[in-house]
Amino acid sequence: MAAIRFSNVFKRYASGQDALLGVNFELASGEMAFLTGHSGAGKSTLLRLIMLMERPSRGQVWVGQQDLSRLHRSQIPYLRRQIGVVFQNHQLLFDRSVFDNVALPLQISGYDPADAARRARAALDKVGLLAREKHNPVTLSTGEQQRVGIARAIVHKPKLLLADEPTGNLDPELSEDIMRLFGQFNSIGTTVLIASHDLSLINRMQHRMLTLRNGRLVADV
Amino acid sequence: MSRPRRKEPETPAQRSTERGATAPRRGAQQHQILFADRSRSWRRHHLNVARESLLRLKQTPVASVMTLAVLAIALALPGFLLAALGNLQALTDGWDPQPRIALYMQTELSDAAIDSFSRELLLREDLSSVELISRQKGLEEFRQYSAFADLLERFDSNPLPAVIMVLPKDSDPLQLPLVRNELAALPGVDEAQLDMEWVQRLAAGLALAQRGSYVLGGLLALAVLLVVGNTVRMTIESRRDEILVSKLVGATDAWVRRPFLYSGFWFGLLGGLLAWLLVQVALMLLAQPAQALADLYLNEFELQGLGFQGSMIMLASATLLGLSGSWLAVSRHLREIEPGAAIPGDV
């Protein structure tokens, strides 16, 4: 049972740049994998295709049993609700508290407010920031902001968790903490795919590693 | 603590069986469970968003007040014009125009014959008054009031006909021409003229003014549409990040649209209320001089406001304009804000 499946996927941007060239892979449900490659290799593009932030030029992407090429624009929000995403630049909103940032996906999905509050606090507790729930994210350190982003990504308990350079700006110790957190989510059954170029960290984690080079998948170990 | 709203697998085993059992999209059964929740959360979201977008107006008080003032003036102007025209119409409806018919007698008739003809007219039941203006009297009046008095010097004899002014009892505009025709056919009558032109002119003038205020109203409605549209567009720009993040975590277009539509709604409604207030104040200021004018015409007249119906129409159209203006902005600009192009990062 595949959580993600890429079948001969090409992506060429309007600028003429080829980001992905014939990518094939499958990520099983409950698996955890790293996606690596140098800057510009196509890691972000691959993640964006899963989120339908972009559409492939050729080939097919499946999420679960859903063929994304058959997904109408109006269905995209429901796909995204099944996925949790952690961004490199965390994409937090600075006009509201940490708590409101984390509760946003639940609010959007229409959870009962009391239920949403309980879940948002549980997610914040998991990343160790429950005490900061009333703070504005701008007052937090980079590492803490990243953890808020993670809490927001997992607050609705998605089946699939994607992360784009989640440790990009963090020191090694913090990075390791965050990776351990992803490991924990994976151990309760969440499928996790992390794009990262931090090879030393990835090697220590002992998970499957997909390597992209110039848009091609060159290694899958 | 309330019950969990969503069915949610707690263990990996459960998770995989559930996923295996469901169709590519959610299973029908689960979908049904969600429906009641969804409509409840939909209502809740509407209430929240309505409240928040109202509060948001307060966050930028100066800008909001300015926008509302522009809207109020643009809405008040046609409202005021229509109210004024309504009053003018009520005023003229109260006037009895007393249409008179002027009978121009043949000039070769003697004064005595005309005199006896006018006495015969007095006996008719369909006329309420008869007034004879003899040739001589007409000449004197012409000398006195007309700028062309010297013209008369060129004539050897008095060129003016005798005129008999009659007042028909029935002032029905459909009946009057018939009476006129009947009188014109009487022997000795050269021409009979129904003196209704000024009433018709007034009516035509009013119709023109009314049409004019509709046109003006249309233009100002367009202005309201654009003002609200532009204000909402700026709000959309200032909340760009929020829109992007919301879309990334699964917000539907409707969800993203909602706060902006509500701001348009509030702009329209509040602008309409202010406009209504402006119109009422303006009418209050006019009430006294209007009364004085009406008194001169010995008329039973009282200045009318917009009335309940007029007020409701004004508020409703203001609200509708606000909503449409924001709809324009939202449909034009929200689609441009898509996560695809906006998230920086490598390829």
From TrEMBL, chain A:
<keyword id="KW-1003">Cell membrane</keyword>
<dbReference type="InterPro" id="IPR003439">
    <property type="entry name" value="ABC_transporter-like_ATP-bd"/>
</dbReference>
<keyword id="KW-0132">Cell division</keyword>
<comment type="similarity">
    <text>Belongs to the ABC transporter superfamily.</text>
</comment>
<keyword id="KW-0067">ATP-binding</keyword>
<dbReference type="Pfam" id="PF00005">
    <property type="entry name" value="ABC_tran"/>
</dbReference>
<keyword id="KW-0547">Nucleotide-binding</keyword>
<feature type="domain" description="ABC transporter">
    <location>
        <begin position="4"/>
        <end position="221"/>
    </location>
</feature>
<keyword id="KW-0131">Cell cycle</keyword>
<dbReference type="GO" id="GO:0051301">
    <property type="term" value="P:cell division"/>
</dbReference>
<dbReference type="InterPro" id="IPR005286">
    <property type="entry name" value="Cell_div_FtsE"/>
</dbReference>
<dbReference type="GO" id="GO:0005524">
    <property type="term" value="F:ATP binding"/>
</dbReference>
<dbReference type="InterPro" id="IPR015854">
    <property type="entry name" value="ABC_transpr_LolD-like"/>
</dbReference>
<comment type="function">
    <text>Part of the ABC transporter FtsEX involved in cellular division. Important for assembly or stability of the septal ring.</text>
</comment>
<dbReference type="InterPro" id="IPR027417">
    <property type="entry name" value="P-loop_NTPase"/>
</dbReference>
<keyword id="KW-0472">Membrane</keyword>
<dbReference type="InterPro" id="IPR003593">
    <property type="entry name" value="AAA+_ATPase"/>
</dbReference>
<protein>
    <recommendedName>
        <fullName>Cell division ATP-binding protein FtsE</fullName>
    </recommendedName>
</protein>
<comment type="subunit">
    <text>Homodimer. Forms a membrane-associated complex with FtsX.</text>
</comment>
Automatic annotation (TrEMBL), chain B:
<dbReference type="Pfam" id="PF18075">
    <property type="entry name" value="FtsX_ECD"/>
</dbReference>
<dbReference type="InterPro" id="IPR004513">
    <property type="entry name" value="FtsX"/>
</dbReference>
<feature type="transmembrane region" description="Helical">
    <location>
        <begin position="62"/>
        <end position="85"/>
    </location>
</feature>
<feature type="transmembrane region" description="Helical">
    <location>
        <begin position="214"/>
        <end position="232"/>
    </location>
</feature>
<feature type="domain" description="FtsX extracellular">
    <location>
        <begin position="101"/>
        <end position="191"/>
    </location>
</feature>
<dbReference type="Pfam" id="PF02687">
    <property type="entry name" value="FtsX"/>
</dbReference>
<comment type="subunit">
    <text>Forms a membrane-associated complex with FtsE.</text>
</comment>
<feature type="region of interest" description="Disordered">
    <location>
        <begin position="1"/>
        <end position="30"/>
    </location>
</feature>
<dbReference type="InterPro" id="IPR047590">
    <property type="entry name" value="FtsX_proteobact-type"/>
</dbReference>
<keyword id="KW-0472">Membrane</keyword>
<feature type="transmembrane region" description="Helical">
    <location>
        <begin position="265"/>
        <end position="286"/>
    </location>
</feature>
<keyword id="KW-0997">Cell inner membrane</keyword>
<dbReference type="InterPro" id="IPR040690">
    <property type="entry name" value="FtsX_ECD"/>
</dbReference>
<feature type="transmembrane region" description="Helical">
    <location>
        <begin position="306"/>
        <end position="330"/>
    </location>
</feature>
<dbReference type="InterPro" id="IPR003838">
    <property type="entry name" value="ABC3_permease_C"/>
</dbReference>
<feature type="domain" description="ABC3 transporter permease C-terminal">
    <location>
        <begin position="215"/>
        <end position="333"/>
    </location>
</feature>
<keyword id="KW-0132">Cell division</keyword>
<comment type="similarity">
    <text>Belongs to the ABC-4 integral membrane protein family. FtsX subfamily.</text>
</comment>
<dbReference type="GO" id="GO:0051301">
    <property type="term" value="P:cell division"/>
</dbReference>
<keyword id="KW-1003">Cell membrane</keyword>
<keyword id="KW-0812">Transmembrane</keyword>
<protein>
    <recommendedName>
        <fullName>Cell division protein FtsX</fullName>
    </recommendedName>
</protein>
